[in-house]
Amino acid sequence: MHTEIDEACKRIKREIDDLGPEVGDIKIIPLYSTLPPQQQQRIFEPPPPKKASGAIGRKVVVSTNIAETSLTIDGVVFVIDPGFAKQKVYNPRIRVESLLVTAISKASAQQRAGRAGRTRPGKCFRLYTEKAYKTEMQDNTYPEILRSNLGSVVLQLKKLGIDDLVHFDFMDPPAPETLMRALELLNYLAALNDDGDLTELGSMMAEFPLDPQLAKMVIASCEYNCSNEILSITAMLSVPQCFIRPTEVKKAADEAKMRFAHIDGDHLTLLNVYHAFKQNHESSQWCYDNFINYRSLMSADNVRQQLSRIMDRFNLPRRSTDFTSRDYYVNIRKALVTGYFMQAFIASALGNAAGTRLLQRLKEQMYSYDGSRRGAILTQYNYGGWSGRGLSIRLPQIYCGRAAQLRWIINVAHLERTGHYLTVKDNQVVQLHPSTVLDHKPEWVLYNEFVLTTKNYIRTCTDIKPEWYV
């Protein structure tokens, strides 16, 4: 969205410049949520002074719907309302949360009009007809629960002992398909057994204020001796984008980002950023110099501390593989896989017969497996040497055997001759997002986010190995 805002600012500036010197000076200011705080403060600056010729200066704020209700800017006289907004909408059929352009509601239109005339009379210019306003626009914005992934909601309801979700008295009842997808996700994560009952692992996952996949990943990281690193990665995934890319210095920002880049992908790049932030004593100046959002890093640090306390409460060990070990990064990537089995893509190299056979075998196993034995069981782990002493705890088993791993492989994809990734189950054509640090197309890719814009992108990607699945 910020690229569209920046482009609009440029076009307005060009149009004003073409009008000649008789027009007053103009200050054009972008506003969106990922803009650094110091740049967001520019919206409160006064407009340019009046010219000697008498032409008055103007301030123009080009904003997302963050300006709709979140703040009031003094001196706004005119509002131009295009009648659209970008909203996150979850599609349960393909398990994708997309940022889509949608028509706003009448309530939103009234809020936008209210931005003008706070300190003096003003006007709102609506770029749609009165007929469209009266007959086509909804009275209120579609409730978030009706357009969201309900995995976390269902997990919390199960934790509270509410099992009859179909007849639960939601203020805005979600679609049955959305509920079924949430139950399916939690079953894949072994948070629910095949009868829909909460497992011990699921009960533990519900204590983490995270998406179920991230909660599973944090718990599973104990098995791979990398819980410290997974805590940091999870915290970084839980806050707004940390990389800043100002339009006027894109090249410098991209070069700064590549200094943190890890060859295996974006998750480990985020880990590098967090480690560097801590090594530089949480310096705001260091963040500024490296085009890093200081507020996001501080939020991530707070999230990490909160998650650490929850782990301590459950006696989950916080530890790391020795950095000099060849398994240091391998263990981290394996732990990532345990939380995001559903969000992996396979790429078979062009003409790679072995890759094609592997893909076919996965499909056969996926559809022939009898899932009667699925569900979390308990096993005993011994974490000797953690904090200088041995620790024996009972922890829900992360893997439920080979068969349980196979049922995760429903969101895999292979690389077609076109160079795109294709999901195996839903046949969704996707591409690596341009923001990834990966400079190649790995055979298998795990991703954190599916972005549906003009193209289908997968964002925050990491190279993984097929043997970690089968």
TrEMBL record:
This is RNA helicase. Residues 1-161 form the Helicase C-terminal domain. It is an enzyme of class 3 (hydrolase). Keywords: ATP-binding, Helicase, Hydrolase, mRNA processing, mRNA splicing, Nucleotide-binding. SMART domains: HA2, HELICc. It comes from Aquarana catesbeiana (American bullfrog). The keyword ATP-binding applies. The lineage of its organism: Eukaryota, Metazoa, Chordata, Craniata, Vertebrata. Its EC number is 3.6.4.13. It catalyses: ATP + H2O = ADP + phosphate + H(+). One of its GO terms (cellular component) is spliceosomal complex. InterPro entries: DEAD-box_helicase_OB_fold, HA2_WH, Helicase-assoc_dom, Helicase_C-like, P-loop_NTPase. Gene3D superfamilies: 1.20.120.1080, P-loop containing nucleotide triphosphate hydrolases. One of its GO terms (molecular function) is RNA helicase activity. One of its GO terms (biological process) is mRNA processing. The keyword Lipoprotein does not apply.
